[in-house]
Every structure is written in C-alpha cells, then in structure tokens.
C-alpha cells in the first residue's frame, strides 16, 4: 500500500473503508427465457483498468421449469415465475447499486415458435415486472433474441472464459448449442474458402472488446432436441387431433404415454408390432436432418465446444462426468445410441426418449453438420466456475451499449 492515495486506510474499519467500496465493481442481470425453462444469471464484474477486459468475479444462477412458452395462455402466471427469480437479485445486489444494475430478458426458440400475439402478451407482462423492480430497465429490455445473436453471444462467452479474446495469438474455438427448440453452430472461419462457400446470411460481423469478428453462425429453428422428437414422431407443426397417437421405432415397444411441449399435448408410443432399435431409428431420424443443414467443409477436422443437451445426454449415459464434463469424439454418441437403442429394456428406467435423443445427436452431428466420426467435442457446463451460456456474452454486450464497460 505504498500508493499515497490510500493513506486514509488506517483510519477506517475495513468494511467501510472507501477503497474497499470497489467503485469498479458492477452487476448485470440477464434472464434466459429458453424453451424448456427460465434462468437468471446475476453477474458481478470488476474492471481493474480501462486497458483490460472486465473480469467476471462471480455468478449467481437459478432456474425454473417450465419455460415461458408453457404459459402461452396465462401470461401473468408466466411473468410471476420471472418475478420469483428477480427477487433473488434484490437480495444479491447491494441496494446502492440497484439503480445502476441493468436487467434484461431475452427469449429464444420457445417464444419464436409461438404466435406473435401470445409471445407479445408474455413479454409485456414481464416488462411490467421489471418496471416494478428497483433495477435499471433499459429500452428493449424484454424481447425475443435473434437466432444469430444466440450463437454469437455463446461464442463470445466461451472464448472469453477460455481467454481467447485478449492478447495476441487468439485461437478461438467453435461452439455447438443444442436447445429444446433450436440448435446453433458458431465458429470463426480460418479459410478464405469458407467465406466464399457460405451463404451471406450465415456470416455476421460483430464488434466486442474493440475487435471485430466475422463469424459463421446459424440457428436452426425446430432442430432443438425436443422439437426433433416431435419431428421424428411426425408431430411437429401438426394440428394435433385428440386421441391421435404418434409412433416411432426409437421408443420402447410397449410404451404409450403423453407429453406436453409448447402448450400442446402429444400422445406417443413405441412400434407395438413393427421394428424397434438403432437401425430403423437412425433411418427415421435421418429424414429429419438429411440435407436440411449447411455443411461447412472447414469444420470437419476442427474441434468444438458443445454444451446444453449435448452435455446433458452425454452425462446421462456416463459418456462424461456430470460435474466435470469431458472430451468425446462424434462416434461416441453413435456407439452409445446403438447400445441404448438395441437394449431398450435395460434402459427403461431412464427417459423413454434416450434412444431417440442419442440417435438424433449422432445424426445431427454426422449427417446434419457433416462432422467426421473422429471430430473432437469438448463438453463443458462451466469454465472457471461460470456457466457456458450466451447470457454472459449478452451481458457484456449490454454493458458495452450502456457505456459501462470499455
Ligand atoms: O446456464 C446454463 N448452463 C448450462 N446449461 C444450460 C443453461 N441454460 C440452459 N441450459 C441447457 O439448455 C438446454 C435447454 O435448452 P433451452 O430450454 O434453452 O431451449 P432453447 O435454447 O431451444 O430455447 C438444456 O440442456 C439445459 O441444460
Ligand atoms: Ca438455450
């Protein structure tokens, strides 16, 4: 403490000492209104100097299920779930910083799939909850996020957390996100060829931390894990008639059950008389993905970070450790899919969709995106104890637009 500005430290007890009030500490609250759940991320940042990137000092994370889209016909009830989560932020953020702490909610594919009218009703109820809170409510604080931003912001998060956005010699990593209703792929192309071969709307320039990145990104609506279940069953975007049964060779033969998604009830079951198992299941799933996705040549050999349902299903089947994650090859998902689909009785205590989910993941990676069998996937839930979600990137972007970071 040789700095002469700190002479006063000796005169104050440590907790009220002005230097410990940390004028450079600030907070940001970001809601992720996903198709399967709503989550709050309360971040604490410290910016030590204008030359350095802000540091994430901590994150408080909480979630509720189901997501807002399940309240399509009860928007007020949906907004109440947001209120419950926001109350946590009231406790977490020091009162003198409430007015300087922005709160934002971005909805993803669940709300994209609802009618404009129902989605807007939900969002305006949420906006009211925000306005009644003590926090800073920026313009556009509640809305549906563009699919391309979802990928870009997750890419920012992962590359920030792995230290690739600062300093020289940046070796950025690509990311794969598999949600309930949509899926994203994002990477920084290294070859001129990739830029030439890629349709314009898959490329987005993005400025963050004083650098501009031209990223390849795309969000495929209806290709999230749960939407893919419906597509495989032939029930996606169908007017469901009461009593209608959707059957698949990817489900246990004797199964008959019902399932709610996006406010609609579906009845589904196994192929009572027909085939079940990996082979027929793969063919069924293939119809959902084959020829539907753009396949950039460049990704075949590179490794990717993968999270959300890629992580969850790999952890459910012990391909990776639930806490620590792990490193896999694309072929590991196919191997596990075979094991589960060809022994469905043995896995009947797990989700009845386990075979379908794993088979879909294998097909999406291989036939959808065109990855090789030996493409390496790094499965991570957290990096340095911070969730690998687009929400951190979105919070940086927000703070930058409010002039709160450099
Ligand atoms: O903060 C997070 N950290 C890690 N995983 C998350 C987080 N938020 C959501 N997920 C994962 O996202 C998946 C659900 O997708 P979501 O509900 O966001 O659908 P959507 O992206 O299609 O709207 C689940 O695998 C869930 O574990
Ligand atoms: Ca998501």
Automatic annotation (TrEMBL):
Catalytic residue list: 150
GO biological process: 'de novo' post-translational protein folding; protein N-linked glycosylation; UDP catabolic process; UDP-alpha-D-glucose metabolic process
Catalytic activity field: IDP + H2O = IMP + phosphate + H(+); ADP + H2O = AMP + phosphate + H(+); CDP + H2O = CMP + phosphate + H(+); UDP + H2O = UMP + phosphate + H(+)
Entry keyword set: ATP-binding, Calcium, Disulfide bond, Endoplasmic reticulum, Glycoprotein, Hydrolase, Magnesium, Nucleotide-binding, Secreted, Signal
GO cellular-component term (any): endoplasmic reticulum
Enzyme class: hydrolase
Source organism superkingdom: Eukaryota
Family, per entry: Belongs to the GDA1/CD39 NTPase family.
Function: Hydrolyzes nucleoside diphosphates with a preference for GDP, IDP and UDP compared to ADP and CDP. In the lumen of the endoplasmic reticulum, hydrolyzes UDP that acts as an end-product feedback inhibitor of the UDP-Glc:glycoprotein glucosyltransferases. UMP can be transported back by an UDP-sugar antiporter to the cytosol where it is consumed to regenerate UDP-glucose. Therefore, it positively regulates protein reglucosylation by clearing UDP from the ER lumen and by promoting the regeneration of UDP-glucose.
Listed name of the protein: nucleoside diphosphate phosphatase
Native source species: Geospiza fortis
Lineage of producing organism: Eukaryota, Metazoa, Chordata, Craniata, Vertebrata
């Amino acid at each position: 403490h040789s700095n002469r500005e700190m002479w006063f430290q000796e005169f104050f007890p440590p907790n009220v000492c002005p230097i410990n009030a940390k004028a450079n500490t600030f907070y940001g609250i970001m809601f992720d209104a996903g198709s399967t759940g709503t989550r709050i991320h309360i971040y604490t940042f410290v910016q030590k100097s204008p030359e350095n990137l802000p540091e994430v000092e901590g994150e408080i994370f909480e979630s509720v299920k189901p997501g807002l889209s399940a309240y399509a016909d009860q928007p007020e009830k949906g907004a109440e779930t947001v209120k419950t989560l926001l109350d946590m932020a009231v406790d977490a953020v020091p009162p003198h910083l409430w007015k300087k702490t922005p709160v934002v909610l971005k909805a993803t594919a669940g709300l994209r799939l609802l009618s404009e009218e129902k989605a807007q009703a939900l969002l305006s109820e949420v906006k009211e909850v925000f306005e009644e809170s003590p926090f800073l409510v920026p313009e556009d604080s509640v809305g549906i996020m563009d699919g391309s931003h979802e990928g870009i912001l997750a890419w920012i998060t992962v590359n920030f957390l792995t230290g690739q956005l600062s300093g020289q010699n940046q070796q950025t990593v690509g990311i794969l996100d598999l949600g309930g209703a949509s899926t994203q792929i994002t990477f920084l192309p290294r070859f001129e060829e990739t830029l030439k071969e890629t349709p314009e709307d898959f490329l987005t320039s993005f400025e963050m931390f004083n650098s501009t990145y031209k990223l390849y990104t795309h969000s495929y609506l209806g290709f999230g894990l749960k939407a893919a279940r419906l597509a495989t069953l032939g029930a996606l975007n169908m007017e469901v008639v009461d009593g209608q049964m959707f059957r698949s060779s990817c489900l246990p033969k004797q199964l008959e059950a019902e399932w709610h998604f996006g406010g609609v009830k579906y009845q589904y079951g196994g192929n009572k008389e027909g085939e079940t198992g990996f082979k027929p299941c793969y063919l069924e799933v293939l119809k959902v993905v084959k020829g539907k996705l753009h396949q950039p040549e460049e990704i075949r050999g590179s490794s990717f970070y993968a999270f959300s349902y890629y992580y969850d299903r790999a952890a459910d089947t012990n391909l990776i450790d639930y806490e620590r994650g792990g490193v896999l090859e694309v072929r590991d998902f196919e191997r596990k899919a075979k094991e589960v689909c060809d022994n469905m009785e043995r896995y009947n205590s797990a989700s009845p969709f386990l075979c379908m989910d794993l088979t879909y993941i294998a097909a999406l990676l291989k036939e959808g995106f065109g990855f090789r069998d030996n493409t390496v996937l790094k499965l991570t839930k957290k990096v340095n104890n911070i969730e690998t979600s687009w929400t951190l990137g979105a919070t940086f972007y927000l703070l930058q637009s409010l002039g709160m970071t450099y």
